[in-house]
Amino acid sequence: MKFSELDLPDQVSRGIADTGFTRLTPVQEESIPLALEGKDVAGQAQTGTGKTAAFLISLFTRLLRSDKKTTANPRALIMAPTRELVVQICQDAEALGAHCPFKVQPIFGGMDYEKQRQALRDGVDVIVATPGRLIDYAKQKVFSFHKVEVVVIDEADRMFDMGFIRDLRFILRRLPPFDQRQTMLFSATLSSRVMELAYEFMNLAEKVTIEPEKVTADKVEQVLYHVGRREKFALMFGILQREPEMERVLLFVNTKKEAEHLAERLKANDYKSAVISGDIPQKKRMRLLGDFRDGRLQFLVATDVASRGIHVDDVTHVVNYDLPQDSEDYVHRIGRTARAGAGGKAISFADEDTAFYLADIEEYIGRKIPSLFPEDEDFNWDFKRPSLRKKKAPVPEKSAARKGPPRRRRRSNRPPKG
């Protein structure tokens, strides 16, 4: 189905044309017509399937056709679990809504508090936010929820995983009644807890489900190597020598310690790499993502917790250096490549510690991952090891000797104890 077949306002159609979109993805084809009819939608969709464009197109169309006038308070609210996802949604909104008269404002922690607060006071049409800071401003009565016409909850399952569900319920209870607004919810899985949220706060939501075999992008070439834990880097180093087209690579590991160790090994062998971890300040985190997006970093090493919300186009390879324990995380990981119709490759290593997760992963995705046992020539042991020596802290210089005779210690007139 083509976008030209949809009944969309001219401003929205021009934004779609500017971005180069022509045909709808499966989740867009099923959800957009329902949303254009004014129905609530609960959709199962992974990152990279076009769900962001689906709810933005529906949201802009609803606001343009609404007879309600713009006020100082927001008319639409989009909630996401991570700061990076908020930034990505705002970038997509700027592109698709370039010809729409709407002001889109991101709200999240780690950035200028007063600047975001003043932007809300000045008036915005669409808020894209993480729940925490949004509640902070709402409690200060910086803005009101009572004019909200459209609500979007993105990656609802991650909201539960990251402990945002109480904040989410706090916000939803302060919105206009569900029959006076349109609500769209998207989640990687429509689990019982996600659907319970939909039943409580949505108006007879239409369920849109993309089957698991469609969730993993068809254009992702998947391959898995059975390899010993101590041999993994030598195998990856050999793969790097054989596949020079690995230009933008996401490497996933299961622990922060392993992520730092792997990044140091890559740097020692002259590969530009960095680690994304939860304790990195937000400004530095955004700078690293920008460097990775612009090609100044070739490798980005991340854990599942820290990688939530990383949405970078043109990722050529995803490497599961450690197989994830959670089957859904495997789908999340490989979905970082082959986005928006592009191709990509997912390479996974199953060692003696993580091979036990393979059966559950293959059952979840509904297919066998092509497996290989590497030959001797696949390994390259001529890699440099990072230096283990720690730089000594500089010894502070001694202050110049005081001129004059040494001071005599004062004698106390107190009698001795005892």
Q: How would you describe this structure in keywords?
A:
single chain, 418 residues, alpha/beta, Rossmann fold, 2 domains, 14 strands, globular
Q: Looking at CATH, which topology of the largest domain would you report?
A: Rossmann fold
Oligomer: single chain
Shape, principal axes of CA atoms = globular
Q: Tell me what portion of residues adopts beta-strand conformation.
A: 5-15%
**Biggest sheet character:** 7 strands, parallel
Q: Classify the helix fraction into a percent range.
A: 25-40%
Can you offer a commentary on this structure?
By secondary structure, the protein is of the alpha/beta class. Helix 3 packs across helix 4 (83-96) and helix 15 (327-334) packs across helix 16 (358-365). It has helices spanning 10-19, 26-36, 51-65, 83-96, 113-122, 131-139, 156-161, 165-172, 192-201, 212-215, 232-242, 256-268, 282-294, 304-307, 327-334, 358-365; strands spanning 41-44, 76-79, 104-107, 126-129, 150-153, 182-187, 206-209, 220-226, 249-252, 273-276, 299-302, 317-320, 344-350, 371-372. The model has no long low-confidence stretch (mean pLDDT 85). It folds into two domains: 3-210, Rossmann fold, CATH 3.40.50; 215-378, P-loop containing nucleotide triphosphate hydrolases (Rossmann fold).
